[in-house]
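Hi there,

I know you've been waiting on this one. I reran it after we fixed the sequence typo, so this is the corrected version. Both the input and the resulting structure follow.
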Amino acid sequence: MSESASHHVVIVNDDPFQQRVLVNRVQRLARLQCRAVSSIQALLERPGSLPLVVIVDVDLGRFGNGYEHCQQLAALPNLCGVVVYSACCDDIAHSVHNLFQSAGILNVCNLSKQLPVSSLLERIANLTGKPRVVRHHPVSSDKAEPQQQSTLSLYQPQYSADGTLTSFEVLARFLGPKGEVLMPDRVIPKLVAIGQITPFTYHFIGQSLAEVSRLTDQQPMLSFNIDYSSLENKTFAKRIIDIIRGQDYPCGRITLEVTETGFSRSDITYQNLISLRLAGVNISIDDFDLSQATVNEFLEFPFNEVKFDKSMLKRASEENKVRELMLHFCQTCQRLGTRVVFEGIEKEQDRTMALSLGANRLQGYWYQRPMPVEQAIELVNIN
């Protein structure tokens, strides 16, 4: 294909077979200059001078941070736009779309690989010649590792609708200078304020996985809380994945419950969440309350679990409007394959209400209180 072609298409895909197929089809059917590279970085090393359309496979984030050069891509003067060409589920593809927009690429569109190649060619033609807008975002750096906070890991069981043990939420309890137990609300805000919450999270997850692995080879499903600020650390997903795999634990048996203390929609947040989901880690939006803020987060990010607390159960039992809204939302989640968890089940009425709304998992004192790891493993062995 000669340099006289009207524009240049680059396929960014780390699968050699898919590279060959797409390049051949684009060149043969549209007679466009087209080539393939395995990463965004490789594209940046030889971007060319023609108007540029980039076709990106979502799976770039499966190993490490495949999207870390998005801002450099956005800065290319000849970039017309990006097509997110994906066989992944919609929520992950949508988050990749948002990531590119957050990096400053205005012209981004999603396209399923299930559609014919003609649809891809239409997207390419639509993107050619469109104006571009670049927005710059600060890049956060890693924080220094802190002195490790002495902690205990407590495990609160989660159960399915039929009463089967499904998983545990792993809760941190902190030890004070005299050995007294401190609740998280006395310590976590301080860790966030001084920028030490992310290193603590690495330590706590690693410690908990190690103690579980030491006592059993059954690898129960575990949930951990993470703070939104940790998602601003550009190596967060890679570190978490490395910690999980370092314990020979399947990523698919880990859920990260994201709690909000200063939420950002930066490209780094998108990169981390996408990489975690592609690795198989489940991402839960904690304390979901049907407010505009949490609904927006549910729509924008690749959450595959929502978690309601006891305050929403109370409102559902007292307010018909809230109950109907929650019922329809939970039904939508079931259709989307999004897991629904209710915590704070403290009495039979709570359990009945949660089940009527469509809970997949339940936890709370009605079932069991948080327990030491040895007791949790005994429970696993019984079940």
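Quick highlight: Residues 197-215 form the longest helix (19 residues).

Best,
R. S.
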